[in-house]
Amino acid sequence: MTAKPTVLVTGGAGYIGSHAVLALRDAGYGVVVIDNLVTGFRWAVPEGVPFVEASIDDAATVAATIRDHDIGAIVHFAGSVVVPESVSDPLKYYLNNTVRSRSLIESAVTGGVKHFIFSSTAATYGIPDTVPVREDMPTVPINPYGMSKLMTEAMLRDTAAAHPLNYAALRYFNVAGADPKGRTGQSTAGATHLIKIAAEAATGKRASVSVFGTDYATEDGTGVRDYIHVSDLADAHVAALDWLIANPTENLTANAGYGTGFSVNQVLDAVDRVTNMKLDRRYEGRRAGDPDALVADNARILSTLDWTPQRADLDGIVRDALAWERHLGERA
Ligand code: UFG
């Protein structure tokens, strides 16, 4: 067996990236982090992990990092993630998620990096005709965020066809929760994601939770999503890397979700259960651009990768998110 390659993790000081760093290290991969610390945190990178503070399109720095650390794989998280912001400032998203990814992919090719994993999103589907949504269903993003990621998927597909590099694009559904050992979690200010917002409310950081829309075509009228524990998602990246190394001529585009949908009210019920309190719910109109339901068909990832979700329990996800929120409160 050949030695495991050293992995460059972009955005490794951010929410999902910092969990992936832990998972890759636990799996025996050497890791180097590159992050510009615009939304990430230096403390989120574990001691002993080499850290490069730079943008992913700083080609000279990326080339030196690849060379100096003999990087064999890149796991690419760095980017912008707030959907409404992508609508008001699309060019920021096409720069951070598309243009800068292009530069990173070129650095990978030039530096002889063999494997590339990309953080894609369920937002590439737009409003699916049916759920659960399969990877071969139409990708018609309804916001610049989804389009900026879909364009990078296309660049990877074409680059992998032309150069000796294979890739996996994982289309994340709703990522939530925090490291069960309390080492990292969602820490960026200005939360927009439901479970993070509910955790802030449950820990007294906000008075109430808005429920956006009660007239969706779902069982209770509130939006349905597929919530995946961030540590399971991090493990999926390790499994994807193992697979890319074992199958050097193959590529993978796969949904990363559990295949189970929960409504906004069901999520808030879980928070009430776990805290034994009642959140103040404010029922409001729909938020622009929200699909009724977005749930993964996860048959492909389950059958391709050696990955079995370990934390597919909504109460557990909520519990870990709450523990991290309390921890953040103690740090502040
Ligand atoms: N919601 C509320 N109140 C809130 C926040 C959210 O009711 O305060 C609702 C939303 O309307 C939606 C559900 O909770 O029905 C989930 O919303 P999130 O903002 O948590 O997540 P999204 O489904 O909008 O976004 C996720 C990912 C994005 C991805 C998108 C694809 O976080 O990266 O799915 O649609 F682009």
Q: What keyword list fits this structure?
A:
single chain, 332 residues, alpha/beta, Rossmann fold, UDP-galactose 4-epimerase, domain 1, 2 domains, seven-stranded parallel sheet, three-stranded mixed sheet, 39% helix, 17% strand, binds uridine-5'-diphosphate-4-deoxy-4-fluoro-alpha-D-galactose
Give an overview of the whole structure:
There is one protein chain. By secondary structure, the chain is an alpha/beta fold. The protein has 2 domains: about 5-175 and about 225-255, NAD(P)-binding Rossmann-like Domain (Rossmann fold), CATH 3.40.50.720; about 195-225 and about 260-330, UDP-galactose 4-epimerase, domain 1 (Alpha-Beta Complex). The protein has 10 helices and 14 strands. It has helices at about 15-25, 60-70, 85-90, 90-110, 145-160, 195-200, 230-245, 265-275, 300-305, 315-330; strands at about 5-10, 30-35, 50-55, 70-75, 115-120, 165-170, 175, 210, 225, 225-230, 250-255, 260-265, 280-285, 295. The strands form 4 sheets. A 7-stranded parallel sheet has the order 3-2-1-4-5-6-11, with helices on both faces. A 3-stranded mixed sheet has the order 12-9-14. A two-stranded parallel sheet has the order 7-10. Helix 6 (about 195-200) packs across helix 10. It is globular. The mean pLDDT is about 95. Uridine-5'-diphosphate-4-deoxy-4-fluoro-alpha-D-galactose (UFG) binds near residues 121 and 211.
